[in-house]
């Protein structure tokens, strides 16, 4: 079980023993966690930090939004995020979804315009890439 939050730490708990298996600093906090090939951590600073799921070492950092990440989901080699943007010190829901290719060295792909903004995101179980 991966946990994070405003405490500026991310941890992996062993559910059988109720012990912390690994822990690492997460400056600025972590708003969202997602497991898979990477432990994808959506930061309150708008960055995605991809970590090793067992050691929690930081492998990659990807800029996504200029405010907090509010949602992320991954399917196969695609990671999609939604978040908050700031403009003239005002917060607003970002009107684009950010898409990242996680094959080899992770990299951003074209953003998907979503004019009404999104706070949460989830792949459809029927989606195939």
Number of E strands? 13
Shape: globular
The CATH architecture of the domain at 34-113 can be named as Beta Barrel
Rounded mean pLDDT score: 90
Q: Which fold does the CATH topology of the domain at 34-113 refer to? A: Thrombin, subunit H
Protein name: PAN2-PAN3 deadenylation complex catalytic subunit PAN2 N-terminal domain-containing protein
Domain PAN2-PAN3 deadenylation complex catalytic subunit PAN2 N-terminal: 2-127
InterPro entries: PAN2-PAN3_catalytic_subunit, PAN2_N, WD40/YVTN_repeat-like_dom_sf, WD40_repeat_dom_sf
GO molecular function: poly(A)-specific ribonuclease activity
Describe this structure in a few short sentences.
With 129 residues, the protein is mostly beta strands. It has strands at 2-3, 9-14, 19-25, 30-34, 39-43, 47-51, 58-63, 69-75, 78-87, 90-93, 96-101, 107-108, 112-113. The chain is globular.
């Amino acid at each position: 079980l991966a946990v994070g939050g405003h405490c500026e730490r991310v941890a992996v708990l062993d559910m059988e023993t109720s012990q912390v298996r690994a822990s690492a600093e997460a400056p600025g906090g972590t708003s969202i966690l997602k497991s898979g090939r990477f432990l994808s951590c959506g930061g309150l600073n708008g960055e995605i930090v991809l970590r090793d799921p067992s050691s929690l070492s930081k492998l990659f950092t990807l800029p996504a939004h200029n405010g907090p990440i509010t949602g992320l989901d991954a399917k196969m080699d695609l990671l999609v995020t939604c978040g908050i943007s700031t403009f003239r010190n005002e917060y607003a829901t970002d009107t684009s979804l950010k898409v990242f290719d996680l094959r080899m060295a992770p990299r951003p792909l074209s953003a998907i315009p979503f004019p009404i903004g999104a706070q949460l995101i989830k792949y459809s179980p029927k989606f195939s890439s």
